[in-house]
Specification:
The structure is a homodimer. The first copy, chain A, has about 500 residues and is α+β, with helices and mostly antiparallel strands. Chain A contains 14 helices and 23 strands.
């Protein structure tokens, strides 16, 4: 099955220095590993190919299970939104209207009202919430949908990182009190931690965004910033505390215990699966290609039989038996018994990021042993014993190593900077600068503009998960600093 | 969690004669069981609510696992199709253009080329196939996507049955020979059999459609017809043998073993999950509401503790222990310890179609027994022993009973008719008529038109899974019959 994606005659060699030539590395691995095809004939729209889709389906499973465990119910809302809904929340329309695709016709008929292809679903969902939520007993009301959204991006698009169509989950929750809603922001970040870090080994900083960088219509936004090998931050799932703004526009009220009608407090949360996958590819990969976490790899173990013409049948049979044993134990294992040479197979599946490989030939059959190759360490050793237990343990250990390595790199990438010049040096050497800054409230925007203009870097915000007390001067204006912020180049 | 969907103060009583007032029954159960909400403010677009989405997600799992088992790879193609692609296949554009929603603008900019929201994805996918398929080694090429499609339906819409947006899977396969492609049609019908009948207990007839009723662009179409309680057929998954028409338009060629370039042979297959769910609801439900198959029910077992103020804590604790035991064994179990009276709880969860219920009070705690209620038979009995084993067995038995009952009904609904008058009587008494018919090739269309005009019924086609030999006269024109066809009213 899997090899079918491999185009005949395509060269399989891959060797690009990821850290030095990240942009080339990324484009090339997307193509070579057949993650996506950019040749679809609408600009900014791409085709996601099986090897990537299988990984992302697993990511969806992890995320949705976690959301449901935390009390969210799944729903499916229409992909289209009437123009009038879309215009109800002033800030929201201002923020999103430059990005909306409009449906104006059905067959030859001009529609009476234009429909937006959803760029996000607040204005689709909240009118329904106002019909469903009646009493404090209905709260908290926690719902999500797995969906695609469409945004007319004018920035350059890159597969997985930024396209005009992307795959995400959006969670939209309502609460009876401000406090409960604000607590949900923390829960959402915990969900990001679960998916991105615990499962996929990609570390991030949860940062409360500056006032000028919040979601259109939100009171405040907490973003998750992860680092790419080129030293640029990529924004991963954001959570938005919406206050009661949308509730008032969409009339989402409940009768509280005291008999009074009140507006709900809201949050929304938008993890983009296709974008998180960009981080997974980029953070873990090496110069030889992908390294997929064991927990999402479409093939967790590739079994390569090493045979001669004489013993082929016997060795392949042995390989099939191992495969069966592993598959019966819920492990995604596969035998590559194609006509390619072993070396070609090794190279190909290493490039595709298969975390573990088992090799067996005549000798191993006799010894009841197997040669185990682990993709991240690029090492081989002989193993004996219950193979399904060995594989499960090795898979988990590999994921732990990926996480630890990424964590160590991430930690080293954050540097304390005492002045503007140090910040400049930090961001130019692919680091995240931590420094004193006057304020992430409105009055700090001028200083942020100077950072952007002079360093093409951005003030990403202040830590959400812990309080970092500023003590000193703003690295830009020299006034007394109210916040410790993180500054980096970004996607 | 689940009860959150239940709107406060909403009446939970449900009692409608399904077979006599099916239309009312269907509308009411969609509303009462909170399967969908029709109040979304674009005509023909509805919101699918959690209780239905959880069922349909399970259906997706079954279908996708089966497709993958049969060698299909998952991919995600763009939701939008350039107008020029769409126009490449003449019959296809003729068939679909009355149904297409068009995107003409992005923000304030008019697009250079209009984009169709996919009504189906042949014209999106096949241009990519022509890039990916090179050699006979790439074949068979079997791919599917889970997706929504949008069609500007002008017929009356009904939730799940016909909407302007629906949820499906589309499989698109390529082969090196005509024979392999035609064999795929059979495999697809086997997949329909697996999902619809084996798992969900909904019987159907696989019928090769008359020439005038095939998919636009296909050589022939095999549809799956299932019966609704009002005696109307509903078309379920269809498979289309496409021949080489699309291959020629989209230039999908391969180098065969003989070194020659040849066009591939194609099939496509489109099971609509939301529509199959309409059959599941309708076929199995009874006058009291839904009866969900155990294998897809969001809650497979509802545990209702029966307590007084005095023993509440103890009984609820016992219920929680049962819940934990079941959940640990992979069973979707839940305790309803809300403040509602037991009778209300029974009534509500019966209406929602929960297949099994466990009741326990002081007596059961003492006896280490439980009262088990099965939704389809509406009977109770006392059970003792390993509860997870009991539940699994009971769940499977319930699904078997649902299937058997549906099969028996379906069999009885097919009646042999010797002449036009008998066909008339059959379709008017909610049956499917089987009869001699001149031909389902082009020259039979006039007779079919007469059936449609006089009986508002349709010639659905001939059996695909077995040969039924015609011997006699066409029930319409009296000419020698070439085919045995099935005629019924339809959705």
């Amino acid at each position: 099955m899997m090899e079918k994606g491999r185009e005949e005659g395509k060269k399989i060699t891959f060797n690009i220095n990821k850290n030095e030539k990240f942009s080339e590395w990324f484009s090339d691995i997307v193509d070579k590993a057949e993650l996506a095809d950019l040749r679809y004939n609408i600009k900014g729209f791409i085709v996601f190919r099986p090897w990537a889709v299988r990984c992302m389906e697993k990511m969806y499973d992890f995320l949705e299970e976690e959301l449901q465990r935390k009390g969210h119910e799944p729903a499916w809302f229409p992909a289209v939104i009437p123009e009038k809904n879309f215009k109800l929340e002033g800030e929201h329309i201002k923020g999103f209207s430059p990005q909306v695709f409009w449906i104006t016709h059905a067959a030859d008929t001009e529609l009476e009202e234009r429909m937006a292809m959803r760029p996000t679903s607040e204005t689709a969902m909240y009118q329904m919430y106002s019909l469903w939520i009646r009493s404090y007993k209905d709260l908290p009301f926690k719902m999500y949908q797995r969906a695609q959204v469409w945004r007319y991006e004018t920035k350059a698009t890159r597969p997985f990182i930024r396209s005009r169509e992307f795959y995400w989950v959006e969670g939209h929750d309502c609460f009876s009190t401000e406090k409960d809603a604000e607590a949900q922001v923390g829960e959402d970040i915990d969900t990001t931690e679960y998916l991105m870090h615990k499962k996929l080994g990609v570390p991030f900083l949860a940062l409360k965004r500056p006032d000028w960088d919040k979601f259109p219509g939100a009171v405040y936004t907490v973003g998750s910033d992860s680092l790419m090998p080129d030293g640029r931050i990529i924004q991963q799932p954001s959570t938005h505390f919406l206050g009661q703004g949308f509730a008032k526009m969409f009339d989402i009220k409940f009768e509280d215990k005291d008999g009074k009608d009140k507006y709900v407090w809201q949050t929304c949360y938008g993890p983009a699966i296709s974008r998180i996958f960009a981080s997974v590819i980029s953070v873990h990969g090496d110069d030889k290609g992908l390294i997929l976490p064991y927990c999402i790899a479409p093939v967790q173990v590739m079994i390569v039989p090493i045979y001669t013409t004489e013993n082929k049948a016997k060795v392949v049979k042995g390989a099939r038996e191992i495969e069966k044993e592993l598959v019966n134990n819920g492990i995604r294992a596969k035998v590559d018994d194609s006509d390619n040479r072993p070396g070609e197979k090794f190279f190909f599946w290493e490039m595709k990021g298969v975390p573990l490989r088992l090799e067996l030939g005549e000798k191993e059959l006799k010894d009841k042993s197997l040669v185990l190759f682990t993709r991240d360490t690029v090492t081989k050793r002989t193993v004996k014993g219950k193979i399904n237990e060995i594989i499960k343990k090795e898979g988990e250990a590999l994921d732990e190593r990926l996480k630890k390595k990424a964590d160590d790199n991430f930690k080293k990438s954050i540097v304390d900077c005492a002045n503007f010049n140090e910040v400049k040096k930090a961001v130019e050497s692919k680091k995240i600068a931590r420094c004193n800054f006057c304020s992430i409230d409105k009055d700090g925007e001028k200083c942020a503009e100077k950072v952007e203009k002079e360093l093409t870097a951005f003030v990403r915000g202040v830590r959400y998960d812990k309080i970092e007390k500023a003590s000193g001067k703003c690295i830009v204006c020299g006034k007394s600093a109210k916040h410790v912020v993180y500054i980096a180049k970004s996607y």
